[in-house]
TrEMBL record:
<dbReference type="InterPro" id="IPR004149">
    <property type="entry name" value="Znf_DNAligase_C4"/>
</dbReference>
<feature type="binding site">
    <location>
        <position position="145"/>
    </location>
    <ligand>
        <name>NAD(+)</name>
    </ligand>
</feature>
<feature type="binding site">
    <location>
        <begin position="84"/>
        <end position="85"/>
    </location>
    <ligand>
        <name>NAD(+)</name>
    </ligand>
</feature>
<protein>
    <recommendedName>
        <fullName>DNA ligase</fullName>
        <ecNumber>6.5.1.2</ecNumber>
    </recommendedName>
</protein>
<dbReference type="Pfam" id="PF03120">
    <property type="entry name" value="OB_DNA_ligase"/>
</dbReference>
<dbReference type="InterPro" id="IPR001357">
    <property type="entry name" value="BRCT_dom"/>
</dbReference>
<comment type="function">
    <text>DNA ligase that catalyzes the formation of phosphodiester linkages between 5'-phosphoryl and 3'-hydroxyl groups in double-stranded DNA using NAD as a coenzyme and as the energy source for the reaction. It is essential for DNA replication and repair of damaged DNA.</text>
</comment>
<dbReference type="Pfam" id="PF00533">
    <property type="entry name" value="BRCT"/>
</dbReference>
<dbReference type="InterPro" id="IPR013839">
    <property type="entry name" value="DNAligase_adenylation"/>
</dbReference>
<dbReference type="Pfam" id="PF01653">
    <property type="entry name" value="DNA_ligase_aden"/>
</dbReference>
<keyword id="KW-0235">DNA replication</keyword>
<dbReference type="InterPro" id="IPR001679">
    <property type="entry name" value="DNA_ligase"/>
</dbReference>
<dbReference type="InterPro" id="IPR013840">
    <property type="entry name" value="DNAligase_N"/>
</dbReference>
<dbReference type="GO" id="GO:0005829">
    <property type="term" value="C:cytosol"/>
</dbReference>
<dbReference type="Pfam" id="PF03119">
    <property type="entry name" value="DNA_ligase_ZBD"/>
</dbReference>
<dbReference type="InterPro" id="IPR003583">
    <property type="entry name" value="Hlx-hairpin-Hlx_DNA-bd_motif"/>
</dbReference>
<dbReference type="InterPro" id="IPR018239">
    <property type="entry name" value="DNA_ligase_AS"/>
</dbReference>
Amino acid sequence: MLDFIAASERIAQLRKEIDQHNHSYYINDSPSISDVEYDALMGELVAIEAAHPQLISPESPTQRVGSAPLSALGGVTHQVPMLSLGNAFEEDELRAFDKRVGDALRAAGKLTSDGAVEYFCELKLDGLAINIRYENGLLVQAATRGDGQTGEDVTANIKTIKSIPLKLREDHEPVPAVLEVRGEIFMNAADFALLNETQASRGDKIFVNPRNAAAGSLRQLDPRITAQRPLRFFAYGWGEVSREMPALHSEMLDWFATLGLPVNHTEHFLAQGATQLLTYYQRVGEKRATLGYDIDGVVYKVNDLAAQRVLGYVARAPRFAIAHKFPAQEATTTLLGIDVQVGRTGAITPVARLDPVFVGGVTVTNATLHNEDEIRRKDLWIGDRVVVRRAGDVIPEVVAPILARRPVDARYFVMPVACPVCGSAIERVDDETIARCTGGLFCAAQRKQSLLHAVSRKALDIEGLGEKLIDQLVERDRLHSIVDLFSLTVTELAEYDRMGEKSAQNVVDSIQAARRPTLGRLIFSLGIRHVGETTARDLARHFGSIQSLVDADIDALQAAPDVGPVVAGSIKRFFAEQHNLDIVIALNAQGIVPEPEPVAQLSALNGKTFVLTGTLPVWSRDEAAAEILAAGGKVSGSVSKKTSFVVAGSDAGSKLAKATELGVPVIDEAVLRSMLH
Ligand SMILES: NC(=O)c1ccc[n+]([C@@H]2O[C@H](COP(=O)([O-])OP(=O)(O)OC[C@H]3O[C@@H](n4cnc5c(N)ncnc54)[C@H](O)[C@@H]3O)[C@@H](O)[C@H]2O)c1
Ligand SMILES: [Zn+2]
């Protein structure tokens, strides 16, 4: 423990730092550190103050909410203070909260000795809190939380948000003289992405995340700007209310809904005791990435309003509610460097090399930056402190630099002029965002990628030839194009890293099985730009042989289904290069003769009915159903004699038994997948 002097010094330092961060976050809508770092500073301050209670003062950020309001917007004094929420990250903190609440209510005679507390569970929307005042049903004022006592007047701005009624509905009963509704202003993920695109195209400020975008959009001096921003609102609380209160928090929200206020009913849940809270937390956690908007946790509130009054408040938060936070989806780290990778078509992709950082449940060490324009748009410099975001299973993204912390020796990124792999020139055609290595198949990087493409499942479908093996084969100059695949032997392959006789034999068998690919697969495997799997099949059916495709001029190419000038031009350019033609000739010489492309079937699963049951290893049942429907099959909820197949995963129950009883074939996900090809 720190001695008194050291503690007071550290406290002063922490308070100053936190105040500065509060200002950046609440006033400038542009945080200078991540929430995780901020929470750590706050946690340290709470701990030192707890050890030295005599040092706690009312000005400490631990005792206060938010930040003093922005003067330009005009202040509004809250009739009922707007507070923050206590929070819990771990199960034991949550159980401790439930115990505190239960004990206090039992002591007050509000709960039986073995009774569980009833909580109303809500999402913790990651936006900003707002207080909207209705007098006799009309919206008269709206204010941000500010420092909890005084907020900013954003009445004109709030009136531009379409989902917020200017007048409350009066279908059921007369509206009260005063009703202050509280809730969250936020932005959907898709709207946020679109807004940032627009901002970037105009050279305007990019927002780090939807929360800051929502706050920045609402706290505008000119409401016309707010009106253009896609803001949303959900009500979850209240301030001054001039009518008798119902008994329960949930009844209050039901009443709000009848008044025409937006309430997030679908995600609400009533829980009895801590274990049910944890179930809710888990369930919402699984849905988090698919909600379409950011939440940073869930909130549990004692449902009984009389019990809430018994529990009361501490300095900056109620005792009857708690935020149960999810792991952060954003973190800050240092952009150590920008490397470039070379893709199959020579595309040069800049990749951020990051100081390893734990975010969204994994350690992130690099992230794609897509292309040079993206780096300029985000204004990323090497050496910058950057915000990294990883939401759900989405690949990690470098969102933005923290300009306030750009070091003096930060370096501007310059696209290299030569390919780091083969030394050929890197070129960027004027109207393209992508820079490319001009080395073609001379470039080992492109050769590796194009070979990986050629052996992939939808092309030649050669198993066992993974990235590692291809890397080695290309580096030892053994593979130049797909032609060389067909002369690989078991003896030579067995000598490569992590290859035994057996796996070498499997690879060779798989290669031999690919000697007679369908024409569509062969065309696809050549890796012609803009020629995807479907186009390749269409071309195969239309031209009937590789030679006719090679011979076709632009007009002839465009006569094929769905082939326009871009695809036709790309095919023409491909076969205009001698080394590509050489591949076609060599394949023929090696006796690699494709089968004619089968006539297009209506769809693979036409007329077949599937029933899905149990947990599939990869797909969710919804995903599997979507795939079946897309392939022309039907999905049914119950097994009958008409069912063609039952797809069973683990823990399959009565449907599986029924299928066996009726003699309906039972397949697993792998078999289903093979049917879909
Ligand atoms: N990065 C930074 O520099 C920085 C600075 C300040 C604050 N912060 C972040 O903000 C947090 C503190 O902010 P805070 O005091 O607003 O607390 P908070 O955001 O943790 O919790 C309180 C807020 O939750 C919101 N909320 C969302 N859904 C709700 C619901 N259903 N019911 C009730 N409230 C709901 C309300 O806006 C309310 O004001 C910190 O823990 C940190 O994560 C970051
Ligand atoms: Zn190259």
